[in-house]
Inverse folding.
């Protein structure tokens, strides 16, 4: 089973627990509903229904609005939205979520699988937007995280391959020709 799945489940459970200890019944119900929407979004994403998944993620974020103790869950959902944007080729939208996706996942080893996936997706988004330097840095961070996660060999291998491709691409000189040759075919 994908290590991201277990980390995501733990984040949902922790958010619900945090809300339960706060004692607000409406918040508890909304946190549970948000967790359900997040899980539905994941299911739809894996079925290839990316736009429907985005709607579920957005609904989950709406349900979490104003609920203290759900920062990790919000970051996780932003990381899933970021991943979906990458799959859809919406790299600028993905990059715009960088801080929201990473902030709540950093600093706690339990969320390393989700953070690693988020960094890998950011690496792809940066590289696809033409920023190879940041793309390489995020893939290096993802690889370092994956190497510490049990049962993440497939993710480690894929990230390593993506990183090598970007490194080779970054070493190639850019081929340019004068503008008149490009315009007139000279």
């Amino acid at each position: 089973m994908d290590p991201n799945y277990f980390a995501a489940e733990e984040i949902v459970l922790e958010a619900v627990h945090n809300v339960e200890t706060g004692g607000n019944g409406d918040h508890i119900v909304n946190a549970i509903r948000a967790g359900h929407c997040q899980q539905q979004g994941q299911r739809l994403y894996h079925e290839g229904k990316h736009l429907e998944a985005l709607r579920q993620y957005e609904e989950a974020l709406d349900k979490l609005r104003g609920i203290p103790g759900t920062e990790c869950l919000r970051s996780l959902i932003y990381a899933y939205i970021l991943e979906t944007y990458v799959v859809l080729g919406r790299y600028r939208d993905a990059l715009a979520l960088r801080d929201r996706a990473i902030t709540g996942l950093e600093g706690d080893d339990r969320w390393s699988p989700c953070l690693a996936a988020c960094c890998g997706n950011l690496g792809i988004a940066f590289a696809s937007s033409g920023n190879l330097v940041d793309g390489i840095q995020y893939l290096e961070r993802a690889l370092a995280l994956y190497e510490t996660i049990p049962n993440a060999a497939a993710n480690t291998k894929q990230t390593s391959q993506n990183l090598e491709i970007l490194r080779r691409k970054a070493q190639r000189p850019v081929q340019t020709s004068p503008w008149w040759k490009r315009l007139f075919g000279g």
Notes: Residues 25-46 form the longest helix (22 residues).
